[in-house]
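User: I want to check something. If I give you two sequences, will you return the structure for each one separately, not as a complex?

Assistant: Yes, each is folded on its own. Here is the first sequence with its structure:
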Amino acid sequence: MSTGKKLTLYIDEELIQRVKEFAHQEGVSVSELVGNYFTAITADAPPDLDGISPEIQALVGAASPDVPPDGRSLAREQRARHKASGSNPED
């Protein structure tokens, strides 16, 4: 994972625990989940979908302030990329 800048968020403790468990099960860090979500909701143009799995393509445009994304498909795609590159998702 590339180095970034620290961001402090205030979130309900129960939600934090659920997110940590989810991230662990998916093999990604909480920072990756948050970063992926922020990237998706701030994208100016739709991404180039060539080579992207249908599950991930289905998420394009799904991010809404009213409906937070499930994140599972995105997390699986992220984990698959880490496995393909041989890097550790917790790095």
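And separately, the second sequence with its own structure:
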Amino acid sequence: MEEENKTTQTVAQDSKGLSIASMVLGIISVVLICIWYISIPCAILAIIFGIVGMKKGGRGMGIAGLVLGIVTLAIIVIIYLLAVIGVASYTSTVSSML
């Protein structure tokens, strides 16, 4: 009976650890969004750890890390799309002036 309780506690601690890691990586990815080479890997890991942590039972922090990772990746994609559109627009404007 005691051994079963220890196994349950170990599984609960593992899921909490993955969920906490997901949330921390999600926060880091949002805060360091201007440093893309740190932000993108942290966001991807936050999404992975969030999914695994939620499957093992750590719901709240897992969801927070998952959402923060997805939001970070969405913002980075939007910034890059706007940059590409801006460069294309600038290039066409300059070429039409010549």
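Because they were folded independently, the notes below concern the second chain alone. The radius of gyration is 20 Å. The CA atoms of residues 53 and 76 lie 24 Å apart.
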